[in-house]
Each structure stands twice: as structure tokens, then as C-alpha cells.
Amino acid sequence: MNAALPFGLPGATAFYLVLYLSTFVVHMVFMHYVLAGATYLACGRLLGKARCAACEWQGILLDWLPFATGLAITAGVAPLLFVQMLYGREFATANLLLSHRWMAILPVLIVCFYLLYLQKSAWISRRRWVWRPVVAVAVCAGFLFIALSWTENHLLMLDHAAWPRLYESGGLRYESPGLLPRLAAWFFLAFPSLAIELAWQGRLTGVGIHAVPQPTAAVAGLSPVRRLALTAGAGLVGCLTAAVLYWSTLPAAVRDAVAGPLAGPWLAILGGAVVVQAAVWFIAAIRGLLSWPLLVAATAGWIVGLVAVAVVREAIRLTAVDLAASAVSHAAALRIGGLPVFLVFAVLNAAAIAWCIYVVRVTTHQPMKDKVIDRGV
């Protein structure tokens, strides 16, 4: 291809690829919160009860991780459907070859989901503190296993030569030089996302990230904003290091194709997004606060970076998969896909969600008004 993605592809194929990338980016927003949040929570629990109690981010994550996991699962349905439409042969083959090893992600996900609720339950709060790190580490390990499984499945999709060998051996594990570097890159990528998301939650819940912090707000000598800056900075450094290692495992032909017209412009955009985020968090770390303009700039760099990462990821996959060969089936699906029906129900569902949010906000604020009236204010 001599054009940047998604240009240069047949119309129907490009349409489904854009839908896939759009829904995958939404999934990443919630998935990053869950993966990095579970890790952040586990590390905090291991540091002891006093530091956990003093860290406002620990409390926010404890409350929101179960809900965020539900959002990540729900948001993952659409890209899962689109990936089967775009890469059906490769995806199905990898699933069958990994067999029970691949399907193990479902029970692990269910266990992690319920353990997240156990973490915030009154039952565990009445038990000895030692059980909280145990549960938190178990949740973190479960999500890491799921991340490893998806990484393994993705790489197996691209390695057509490994399919006969894995089938003949009867093995349920796929080994590749790029497995651990790619897993590490995606793992560390979640932490800059978590920092942005926690910053917004902190601003909305009154943590005070835009004001000079009080000395009492420090944990391990770091203010709330500096803790976020450390989280984001460590994530960016770790992600870039792992990405370079993963890039070195790719064949030269793949690197040349991705760095060329196919995804070269997106790599440049990604580099700019990383620079913006790094600069914002560096300034925030020095000042100890995150002003509104800086938060908006970091958020813009983060969103643009996620889009660029998703496109570069697909560019690497397209070097091993010929999407043009499926152009006829994509065009047929577009003609019979019922897009008008989908759009109608999308609007209805959006209206229903908006109504639910409105009802919750009204019922939440009404008791507060009643308390004010009862006090004669």
C-alpha cells in the first residue's frame, strides 16, 4: 500500500476498519483503567495500610474498578465482532490452536470481576489487613494473564508458518521473540492512560489537583499530582523501551512497510503525542499541581496517541494479512448489514443511557436538598 491507513483500501473494508479502530480505542480507554488500576491498587496494598488510607487514588480505584471492568467488557464486544469480520480466518485459527489455554480467559475474567467487588465489601474490611493485598495481587495477576493470552493470540494470528507446527505438536502455548516485549509495551501504555483518567476523577471529586497541595496530602513524600506524574512518566518510559525491543523483533520488511507510507505519518503523530504528554507531566511534577490548560493538553495528547497506537498496530497486522482479498465479502456485508437499523437503535440506546444518568443525578441530589431543608438552611 502506498497510502496511509485507512486510505488505499477498498471502500467497504476501510469502513469496517475505521469502525474497528474507533471501537477499539474506546475499549482501550476502559481497559487501561482496569489493567493499570488493578496494578496500582495491588502495589498500594503491598505498601501497607497507612499509605493506602492516605492515598486518595487508592480509594477512587477501589470504588470504581468494578464498574470500569464492566465498561471494559461491554466496550470490548464491538471490536471483537469487527475483528472477526476483518480477520476471521486468522482469528478463528488462533483461537482453535490455543484451545483451552485461550478459553481460560473467561473463568479468569469472571473470578477477577467478583474479586473486585470483594475488595470493597464490608466482609473483607472486617478481616485482617493481610487479606487485602492477597486479593489485590490475585486480581492483578488475573488481568495480566488475560493480557498475556490476548497478546499470544494476536501474534499467532500473524505467524501463518507456526500454525502447522503448533497443530502437529498439540501444544497450547505459542512462543515468539516479540511476545514479552509486546506484552510489556501494552502493559506500560496503560499507566499514562490511568494518570489522565485519575486526574479527571480527582478534579471532579474535589481532590484539588489544580491547587497547591497541602503537606498532609503527601504520601511517601509525593503530592497527589506528583504521584500521577510518576505513574505517567514511568509508563511512558517503560512503554517506549518495550516498544523499541518489540520493533527489533519484527522482520526488516515489516519495519520498512510500517515506517513507510502505510503508517509513517501515524508514527510521527504518535511521537508528537508522547512529547506533549511527557512535557505536561514534567511541568506538573515540578509545580505539584495540574492546571486546567495542562490537563486539557495532556488529554488531547493522550487521545491522539491512543488513535495513533491503534492504527500502527493494525499496520503491523496488515503486513501479514491481505485485507483486499476479503473486499468482496466486506462489500456484501455492508449492503446487507442493516446500518439504518443499527443507527436507529444506537440513538435509542444513547437516549436511554442519558435518561438513566439524569435519573441517578436527580435522585442523588434530592436527599442532599432534603437535608438542607430539614436543617432550616
Question: Keywords, please?
Answer:
16 helices; Four Helix Bundle (Hemerythrin (Met), subunit A); 2 domains; mainly alpha; 377 residues; 0% strand
Structural summary, described in words:
The C terminus is likely disordered. The protein is built from 16 helices and no strands. Helix 11 packs antiparallel against helix 13 and helix 13 packs antiparallel against helix 14.
Q: SSE order in H/E notation?
A: HHHHHHHHHHHHHHHH
Shape: globular
Count of individual domains:
2
The gyration radius over C-alpha positions equals 23 Å
SS-derived structural category: mainly alpha
Number of strand elements: 0
- Uncertain runs with pLDDT below 50, 5 residues or more? 368-377
Helix content: over 70%
Return the average pLDDT rounded to an integer.
Answer: 89
Span from first to last CA? 69 Å
User: Which band does the percent of strand residues land in?
Assistant: under 5%
Say what oligomer this is. single chain
Count of alpha and pi helical runs: 16
Main sheet, how many strands, which sense, barrel?
none
Brief sketch in words of this structure:
The protein is mostly helical. The protein contains 16 helices and no strands. It has helices spanning 11-46, 49-54, 56-75, 77-86, 88-103, 105-119, 122-125, 131-158, 162-169, 179-205, 224-249, 252-262, 264-287, 292-318, 327-336, 339-374.
